[in-house]
Write a structure and sequence with these properties.
The chain is α/β, with parallel strands linked by helices and 253 residues long. The protein has one domain: Rossmann fold (3-Layer(aba) Sandwich), CATH 3.40.50. 49% of the residues lie in helices and 15% in strands. A 7-stranded parallel β-sheet has the order 3-2-1-4-5-6-7, with helices on both faces. Helix 1 packs parallel to helix 2 and helix 4 runs parallel beside helix 5. 43% of the residues are buried. This is Short-chain dehydrogenase. Keywords: Oxidoreductase. GO terms for molecular function: oxidoreductase activity. Belongs to the short-chain dehydrogenases/reductases (SDR) family.
Length: 253
């Protein structure tokens, strides 16, 4: 099934922006939301210059506010209905990586990451699935992380835990909609350049450029597989050995 109408959260920068550009090139209509509306406005102009034939809808959204998530998703559904279309795909991408080692005075930042990445994901899944169940079709995509497969130290501790939670949520939902015309995909990106990776300091291993990563993400999403590692090399093979990595080695990732 061709997915023409796509909602992306956290679309103002990084992977969300990169995916929006790639989908626009493919002629997809886009519903984009993020906290920073001014960046969305600039992105909309860029997308319509790339492809003047697509519709681009924008709304401000803080995914930690559950009531707002439902309002925004429903409003986007109406936007597409007014264009005689349906919402075909929702990409849950909004996230953050604030924080530090537990017990070092960064409890507020760690909780912000947990609320955005995990609780926010639940709200987005609830809102998307209400729409998909009612129309009896749709593709839900959750952007997790390679960090979902092990615990990580320092600033990654809470972030990795939230991405493991997203991984579990997606799998549980996938079981729930088995044999129904609703698909659920989990994407596990490795290190792709973004505002989040820019704040790390020393570049992590196997980093790829944002434009290349965005192309690979969109290619993987369009295949609608249950689980995908992006890029496949080397992350699929790293995933195979991650359960056996000693803690000293995990510090390097």
């Amino acid at each position: 099934m061709t997915r023409k109408n796509i909602l992306i959260t956290g679309a103002s920068s990084g992977l969300g922006k990169g995916m929006a550009i790639e989908f626009a090139k493919q002629g997809c209509n886009l519903a984009l939301c993020a906290r920073r509306v001014e960046k969305l406005e600039l992105l909309k102009k860029e997308l319509q210059e790339l492809n003047p034939n697509i519709h681009v809808f924008l709304r401000a959204l803080d995914v930690t506010k559950q009531e707002d998530v439902f309002k925004v998703f429903k409003a986007f559904e109406v936007d597409f209905k007014n264009s005689r279309e349906t919402l075909d795909r929702v990409i849950i991408n909004a996230g953050m990586g604030k924080g530090a080692s537990l017990g070092k005075g960064y409890a507020k930042q760690n909780m912000q990451t947990a609320m955005t990445n995990f609780c926010g994901a639940i709200s987005q899944m609830e809102a998307a699935m209400e729409i998909f169940r009612e129309q009896n079709h749709g593709h839900l995509v959750l952007i997790s992380s390679m960090s979902a497969f092990r615990g990580y130290p320092r600033a990654m501790t809470v972030y990795a835990a939230t991405k493991a939670g997203v991984k579990s949520l997606a799998e549980g939902l996938r079981v729930d909609v088995l044999h129904k015309p609703i698909k659920v995909s989990t994407i596990f990106p490795g290190y792709i350049e973004s505002e989040m990776t820019d704040s790390v300091g020393k570049p992590p291993p196997f980093m790829i450029a944002l434009d290349k990563g965005s192309k690979l993400l969109v290619k993987s999403i369009n295949k609608e597989k249950a689980k995908t590692f992006v890029p496949y090399w080397p992350w699929y093979f790293i995933k195979l050995i991650m359960p056996f990595m000693p803690l000293k080695m995990l510090r390097k990732f």
